[in-house]
Design brief:
Layout (H helix, E strand, L loop, with lengths): L2 H8 L11 H12 L1 H6 L5 E5 L3 E6 L2 H10 L1 H9 L7 E6 L6 H10 L4 H10 L17 H12 L7 E4 L6 H12 L5 E5 H13 L3 H9 L3 E5 L8 H16 L3 E6 L11 H8 L2 E4 L5 H19 L7 H10 L4 H18 L5 H8 L2 H5 L4 H11 L4 H5 L5 H17 L4 H7 L5 H17 L1 H16 L3
Parallel strand pairs: 2-3, 4-7, 4-8, 5-6, 6-7
Antiparallel strand pairs: 1-2
Helix pairs in contact: 4-16, 8-9, 14-15, 14-16, 19-21, 21-23, 22-23, 23-24
The chain binds adenosine-5'-diphosphate and magnesium ion.
Amino acid sequence: MDKNNNKKLNVYISEEEKTLNWEDIQNSFKKMFGNEIYTSWLQKISLIKEYNDYLILGVPTRFFRDWIVSRYLDKILEQVKSFKLSLNRIEFKIIEENRNTQELTKIEELSKITEIKDSILNYNRLNPNLSFDNFILGKSNEVALSYSKRVCEHLSRYNPLYICGGVGLGKTHLLNAIGLNLQSENNVMFISAERFMYHFIKSIKKNDMVNFKDFFRKSSVFIIDDIQFIRGKESLQEEFFHTFNSLMDKGSQIIISADRTPMKLDRVQERIKSRLAGGLVVDIEVPDLELKTKIIKKKILEIQNQFKENINLSDNVIEYIANESKTNIRELIGILNRVIAFSRVHNKILTTADCKNILKDVFSQIRVITVDKIQNIVSNYFNIPLNDMLSQRRSRPLARPRQIAMYLAKKMTTRSLPEIGRRFANRDHTTVIHAVKTITRLIEQDDEMKKNIGQLKNLLLENQN
Ligand code: ADP
Ligand code: MG
């Protein structure tokens, strides 16, 4: 690892927060991935910041990040989890090589401001790479794009603007683009619903609701991503509703994304649904071949410019990639990265037959459902912290979801019972057997349980990347 770089980065890891030894983790990567993959990829990743439930890792380029995410993310997460069980997410940050001192001071200053601001700012930052300029127009996103732009020109005319569409179709990209467009003249707040919930719960525990409310209600443009995650917990919905109403009352623009229309949100109060539907609802559909082809060509250009190299993919190959990836632009980009990396390493012009070979296992890989994913989705669904779900506590509100997660892990992954037990804070395999039996019985006896399991399975099948 680049020692200098690492040293600089350490400036903003607060010492008392650190529990992970990155060197140990790196060594385990080496064992897990082998020397070759390790030195070309894993070794270049640095630890920037450690939170209780997620890590921010530093990578040198965007391409590097996409590559790691599309190929190794699951394994990396699995591995770091074995060092710290409460982790459930990894975020990447691209570190420019010549980070100047001014930026460092900025970051140091950031860490001095109050905790809620500090932690929110960490992901409230807009991604400068997701703008209107590089969002490609197609039939499937025409309406959503056009209203996203109009919102920027006429604040509070369409309020709230609600963008819905399936996974990987460009919702976050559009939200981010709106934020970028408006941030110089407005107080823009951009947060995922999941994070909003996390802060809400944390503020309750710390008795700090006043700050929480003030913080969110200050924004004049409030952008909230993946609102389907706000569900359940009455008190949270109440707070969300109040925040929402007071923002609307003072004329702030609200922009929301979700994977479904407002009326289809489950376990959300009716009055919230109708308020959400009360502005303008636009959707993004599945991309057609034309849009997919355009996106591939644009990405190739971007990579060429960034790396100053010539990428030679024939029209046949481009068409092949566009056809292979059926519904999801994120997946499409992942596949493209993989093909480009291959052609770069082997320095040859690829045929469609080569592509077929390269991608042979990509699709099966992308569709893998992992124990991690199950644990995350179940804890989210029941609105309980992952830590609590995995803990030794036996109260029913924790024990049931835990058993459900074990049941799903047995049914939907190829992991053995002892392996599943280990992933649930080192429980014995007999505990897993008991969980599977209990849930199987409850599904037969209890309609509510049957419904829950059905919905969870759908979520797992939907969220495949
Ligand atoms: P969602 O939030 O709907 O799951 P994202 O906004 O994260 O999807 O999009 C997934 C990836 O696809 C991102 O890298 C995004 O930049 C890219 N993408 C999606 N739609 C477009 C588009 N029309 N033009 C360019 N890139 C796009
Ligand atoms: Mg998104």
